[in-house]
Structure formats: C-alpha cells, structure tokens
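Hi L.,

As promised, FtsX-like permease family protein:
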Amino acid sequence: MLRISARSVRAHRARMALSVLVVALGVGFVVGTLVLSATIDAAFTGLFTSGAADVTASPRAAFAVEVEDQAISGAVATVPATAVAAVAAVPGVAAAHGEVATQDVTVVDAGGHAVGPSSGAPTLGYNWYPRAHPIATLRTGRAPTGPGEVVLDAPSAAAAHLVLGAPVRLITPAAATPATLVGLADPGPANPGVGLVFLDTPTAQAALLGQPGRFTAVTADAVPGTADAAVAPAVQHALGPAVTVATREQQASSAAARVGAFLSTVTDALLGAGGVAVLVGSFLIVNTFTLLVAGRTRELGLLRAVGARPGQVTGMVLGEAVLVGVLGASVGLGAGIGLCAALEAALRGFGVDLSAVGLSIPASTVPAAYLLGVGVTVAAAWLPAGRAGRAAPTAVLREAAAPTEDGAGRGRTVAGAAVLLVAAGALLTAALVVPHTGLTVGAVLFAVGVAASLVGLVLAGPALARTLVACLSAGYRRLFGTVGALARGNTTRHPRRTATTAAALAVGVALVTGLGTLASSLDTSITRDIAGSTGADYVLSGRGGQPLPPQVTDTVRALPEVATLTRQRYAPADLGGSQVSVSGVDTATLDTTTRPQYVAGDTSALTQGGIDVDQATAAADGLTLGSPVHIVFLDGTPADLTVGAISRPPVGGGKDGSTFQVSLDTLSRYQPLTKDFTVYLGAAPGAAPALGDALHQALTDAPQVTIENRADHQNALRGQVALVLDLLYGLLALAVVIAVLGVVNTLGLSVIERRREIGLLRAVGATRAQIRGLIRLEALAVAVHGTALGLVLGLGWGVSGQRLLVGYGVTALSVPWATLAALALGTALVGLLAAIIPARRAARTDLLTALIAV
C-alpha cells in the first residue's frame, strides 16, 4: 500500500502541487521564526556574554516587569557604594567593581544630530573600569578619566563622521552633559549593532543616573579555578535579600532577552504569517484530498474488490498525505532558512549585524518543521481518507466517477447549527460580561466563540452551501441561459466541495472584516477620545519611550508663549498581583490640558492625595469613592491610597494593565526619582501660532524630544495603530492569496474529475466559450458564497471584539462599510480571475479523450 501511495502521488503530482506549496508556506514562516529568533538570541547573548562579569548583583524588583515599562519612569534602581566593598570581601572573589549601566542614552553631535545605530537599536551607557570580560576594547585614543570625556563605539562615530576631539553631548533622563570624544572603542564581532558610550565612574553616576555614589550593579570576577555558581550564593549572603545575584550565563541570557525585544515584531510577524498559512491552507488540503478520493471511486473500489481492507485503503490515502506533508515540510524548511538569511541581510543594511554568529538553527527546527507539515496534512486528510476506506467494492462497476451525495446530511447540519448557536452565545456573552468580570474571562469566551464559529462553519458548510448558493445564483438562468443553469446546478449538487472551497475564502474575509471593524472602531475611539480629552496646544515626549530630562521642562516653562504646563510621570506598580501603571500629573492644570472625563469625584480629590481609577477597573474590583487601594511600587515601596475619583478609561486603559492617576506630589512622595514622560502645553492668549516655532527653536539641542501639536499628537497615536494594522493586513492578504489558490485548485481538480461531463457537453454542441463561462460562473458563485459567509462571521467577531475592549477605551463601534464593499467586489473579481486557468484547461479538453476517460 505504501508503494501504491507513492505511485499515486507521482501520478497526481500536478494535483498535489498546490497542497505542497501551502504546507511549504506555513512551515517556511514558522522555520524562519525559529531560526531568526535563535539567531537574534545568539547575537545578543554573545554580546552580553562577552561583557558580563562572572557574578553580578543587581537591585531586586518587587515584581517582574517588562524593561519598557520600567524605563518609562526614568527612575533607575541602584545599590550603594558600600556594596562593592562587601562583595570584594567574599571568598572566591578576585575583584569587585561598581557598574553603571543604562540604555536611555542619546548622543548628539555639535550640529544637534543624534549619533547612534541607524537600526533603532539602543545606545547603552556604561562607566569605564577594568573588566575581566570587556564589553569593548579601545581601538584608538584613551579611556575617559574625568568630567567631559567620553568614549564611543567606532561604528557609531564613523557613521556620524566624528573624530577624536569632537564635541558631543550626552542626553539622559537625568541630565544633559557636554563632553569631548577622547576614544573610539571596538565593540568586537559579537556586537549586533548596539551603540556604546563610556564615561568615567563619577561622571557616569551623575550623567547617566543622576545619583552620585550609586551603582546599578556590583560585578565580581571569580578567582581562577572557582566556579561562578559557587561564588554567587556567597555574594547573595553578603548583600542580603535586597539584591538579585546572577552568574555570567544567567545575566547574559536575561540582558539579551531584554535588549533583543526591539526585534520581536519581526519574529511575531513571521509566526503570525505561518499560523495564517496553516489555518487557511488546511481547508485547501481537505478539499484536495476530498476531490481526489471522489475522483478515484472506481480505483478505490477496485482495490477493495481485489482484497484490500478498509483500513489499508485509508492508510494508503494517509500515506499520500504523509508524502505531501514531507515534501511540503522539506521545501518549507529550505524556504524558511532562506527567508531568514534574506532578513539577516536586510537587517544588516539597517545596521543590525548578525553575521558574527551566522544563522543559528536550533536542534528543534527540523523536527518541528516535519511535525507541523506532516501533522497538518494528515489531520486535513483524515476525513477524506476515512471516506476512501469506506469505498464499496461494487464501485468498480459504476461508471460515475463520484457520488452525487456530498455530505450535507441532517445530522451534520443539526450539529453545525448547534455549534454555531454556541459560538453566537459565547461571542454575545463575551461582549456583555466584560464590564463585570474583566478582560480575561471575556477573552476566553471570545476565543471560544471564534473557534466554535469556525467549527460550526465546517459542519454546517454543506447545508449552507446548498441553500445560499442556490439563492445567490438564482439569477444565473435568466442572465446566462443554459450555461448559467448548469453552473448553478454544479455548485449546489456538490455542496461539500463548494463549502470547503468557500470556507478558506470565508476565513480570510472574516479575518479582514473582523480586524477592519476593530481598527475602524479603535481609530474612531482615539479621535473622539483625544478631541474630548486633550486641551493642550502642544505635547512633548521622548522618542522611543525615553523620559525627558529636567532641562526640557525648565526650558519650555520659561517661554512667554506658554501659559499652562502639565507634567505627567509614570511608575509601574502591583495591585493584587496585576501590574498597573501609576500616573502622576500636575493637578493645578489637569482639567484644562488632559480633561479627564470623571463619572464620579473630581480633580480636587487627587490634590488631597486620592487616586483616580478608571471605570472598568472600578467595576471589576468593586471600587467606589472612598474605597482603599493598596499598591506596591517596583522598588517595594507600599502605598495605601483612597479612591477619590472614577473616570472613563482612555484608549488603552482598563483592567489588567490599567493606568491609575494621582497628583504629582503624591507620586513623588513614593517614587521621588521618576522623570517627566509627557509635558502638555497650553498657549498664552493669541500665542498659539507662534508657540510651535518657539518650541522648535528652544529645543534645537534636544533631538530626542518629539514636539507635536494637537493634530500631530492625534495622528501619531493613530499612526501607531495603523502600523500594527498594516502588518496584520499583510498577514491577511496572505490568507486571501491562499484562499484564491484553494479556488484555483478546486476548479482545476473539478475539471479533471469532470472530463466526461465536459466531453458530453462538447459533444452535444457546447462551445469552448460556453465551457469557459461555465467554470467562471461556478467560481463566481463559490467566491460570492465565501465572501458572504466571511462578512457575517467577521462582523460578529468585530462587534464582539469591540464590546470586549470597551473597558480599554474602544467605546465607539465603527463598521468600515466602504472597505467591506470594496472587499466584496474584490473577492468576486478574484473568483473570476482564479477561474481563468481552469476554464481554459476545461475548454481545451479533447472531446474523444474525455468521452472514453475512465
């Protein structure tokens, strides 16, 4: 039977080609993700391994937090200088040093232009001290020895045309420091494009941290022959529970994960593309094997007649699926590695050089590729293989190539209807219960609803196809005569084939419709939220989420064009096991600049030390005015506050990641080192037109500051959403392409299966043009049917998703009707285009060959 499977795949290789292609697409994107992730991890691990000390002691955080969330506060956790001496006295430690390290550094040349990696990778700032494992070595010049001296990595300096003696400025949330370039450092081959800047220790403490006499960590070099793992517990004992101690390998892995996160969007996109390809492609594979089994009824019946058992026939078809999966996985494995190599070369053009480590292929890549490729193909072919095993031996006596009954049975239809009802109930419940149970429960219900709707679509698909296609093509006879009637009959006579072909298109359209509805709702909500809550004429913020140095606020405050100034700072905190963000604002001008939309209480309560909680969080946690709120900040500082106001959540706010608002004085009481993250400015009467020019002139020497008027600020927020949506729409375009391949594949197999039918039509006088029209009309009916199902599913997903995110400020439901109309017309056109090749093949069918086809 295995030999028969192999011969069958060879005999039907043209029919299997698209299935192999779809499997290869899915596997290729997943392999590319695995390889690129491993390569990035190896590059950054190599960077930090080369510079990590044997043992490093860092301040302990009260809870785990993403590095981006910690950086927005501008406060850097530190240890006192006495910790260095304590570590140096530990047995097994050869030397101990205090380290200053931060990644919130902007280097500016004399012309006010930023100096650093063109890739967007961070510039890391360090103090220079003798290291057993140096981060970089001097290429030319000397080490910094006092105030006003700096060493830069040579690639960044060369890109900015800086030479020794050139004046530069270092800008951090702590200070803006003028300096002279006294040395160029070679970052070594392990550096993937990260910028480096070095200062002497006292200057680094003042310029990078704003905390003289403090360090971000204490590094220890172990005595030769002493294991790092043996020294680490002793260092922990010497410093106590206030610090976290990590060996060189542990520190390198942690740092690599944090700094490498800026490339995670690429890997997420690849993984999403692979998931979309696998999901939509599975429908194509199902249809391929369904049609192949249906077209080989006589062959399978002959096997049964000569003694093949049902299990052997089923195994034969599954063997074919295994071979298709192996071929697709093999092609996808090579394509994925090639894709990663192309991305690595593209990243090198943007300044991210991963060539030092080469492509890192994890050991799990090859097994994962074949497991995915074979697993998806076998799973998709399982039901058609089962039907093949049930082929009756008497089928060899029948002339019909395929049964006319196509699986739209009553039991299947009832089961599909029941599952669709479950899906509708889950989506409806998700939309209604979120304000009372929080996002987590609603998300689970939403996921159940989406999954159930897909299952219901598959189960009830034949019944829907038989009914809806008949309705959608009701005008075929009147418009196209006999050809139209034949096309309508063909699509309704085989509802399973029609349903499976349309399902792939329906999923693609549903994804586009659902995400389009969410995108439109989010865009409308952002526009309405900013229009109603932003009274500032201009907004200042740091590029890349970097807090603003105090000089920026002081500079703009002195401008005569500025009438009101509202500072906003952030600090991560923990509320009952959930990470939240506490925002501190100037309450004196809050009502005129950010205009919080209170549903209870007012700004005066914040002035008196109260906390403003968003409405969704208050409902989920049962908070009312006067309720106590206990939070713990990242450094372990506790705060017991009282709810003084409840407000509508802004876009992005809500339970699980909420932003709580307090006065700036209250936040400074618990977190005095936080820096301004956003500054809202109101213009003096009549000075609004001149304020923009005044700000740009006053902040010429601060290129890290983003200056936005109200419209720019709104567009920037909408642009962030648009960037993500463009990526998602790219993935969805892949889904539509695969769905179109499914239509092409189904029509092509249908033409092969119906050679005798087409021959008979030609024999009774059908012209080639009529045969082409027949195939095109069938494709159009399938495309319109799939589009209609996708629009209904997508609208259900989009509306439920919007209601799910009401607590996150997505309060406006906006359906992009124009986009959906264009989508519907586009898919109809795609259906016609997909039929071009199959229709041409059908029209060229040789009449005599078709009539004698077995």
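The longest helix spans residues 710-753.

Thanks again for sending the construct details.

K.
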